[in-house]
Write the structure tokens for this entry.
Amino acid sequence: MNIVEVKSICKSYPAFRLDDVSFSLEKGKITGFIGRNGAGKTTTIKSMLNLVHADGGEITYFGLPLHGHEMEIKQRIGYSTGTISWYPRKVIREIVDVTKAFYPTWDDEAYRRYMSLFGIDENKKPIELSEGMKVKFNLLLALSHRAEVLILDEPTSGLDPFSRDELLEMFRTLKEHGVTILFSTHITSDIERCADNIVYISNGKIRAASSKADFMQNNGRPGETLEEVFLRLEREVIA
Amino acid sequence: MNALLKKEMRLSALLLTYLFIGFSLMTFCPGYPILCGVFFITLGIFQSFQSAREANDIVYSALLPVAKSDVVKGKYQFVLLIELCGFALMVIFTLIRMTVFASSAAYLHNALMNANPFFLGMTLLIFGLFNVIFVGGYFRTAYNLGKNFVIYIVVAFVIIGIAEALHHFPGLDALNAFGFEHIGLQAALFAAGAAAFAIMTYMSYKKACEDFEKIDL
């Protein structure tokens, strides 16, 4: 069952165009959104959050169009990025205290549980957290309001291999709890480790959107690894 | 208190903004352009906008389950709260100058503006200009602060200069009334300032909602 549908999203900038981007997210599955730097991953994700206004197309969550149901949808989704830190000099407890007032579904018990699981000290400030802990803090906010869909923009960017592995393991645990995850990355091993499905974007166009097995079957050559497939496909696009 | 105003006050605002409300005390300064107190209060608000921008406040707010127009409303509510706190103190200090210090030599021999209802009307006019030029201008991009603030500084100081000098013009000495002299005219000028503030703030808020809806973050 598809819980999120992205249909024919277009967005033009002077030097870049997101062209007819379409894919869907299956409920309770992890989807890796892969593409090189500047391929259009962040623009697509920002369109999915209505931070960027698409020139055309439609996005639906839980069968509801984002346009006209934004508040209702944002109650049920969570967003995290490895590149932005919110209120870096405020104490985490205060950020949480203010944020939870926006979510009727906020679950204090879940907050305590995930805080302990992630090893986050609520008396610290985001600026005092490592990059990996910042991502975990964002996840903590999303999971404490019982987000059913997590949209994560390069959550593993800048993490050391151990922290990356820890985070990907966490994705698998969340998936077991029925959470749907979309995470963008340019690191193929992240996809190999935990993604069920792959959405591959290049130069603003979706080149493939399928299960990992189907992707390899349709695009791979005998003996090729996932990374080798991506590298070859990118070279073909450039050529 | 609604959640967005609470967020503005606890996450987006700097302590400095609250402290700068204290510049309303400048209402008591003899021989000083007392309208500058308004400018310093708005300078405090500017500092909070600057700090909030560095903290990615506007994207954080846009990701919350609220309408984009509510994000604008939260900012305006915060700005109005600070302005009206400063204004309330200025009203109290003006009333003290109009009564207790009505015949004080330090104020009577003041070449600059006196604290009276006309002064209060001018404070509201300058707050209204701040809301139009700076706050409204900010929501055209949600990141550009400097240019709008510089334009506001120029406009604010031109208005301050005119207001401080106006009573020296022939026939306009009633603008600098002491105590409750010319109270009818003074009340009318205050009402005009209040109306200008209300209209400018409302129009600016409406335009900011439209602009913020259109921009990409």
The domain at 2-76+148-238 of chain A is CATH 3.40.50.300 (Rossmann fold).
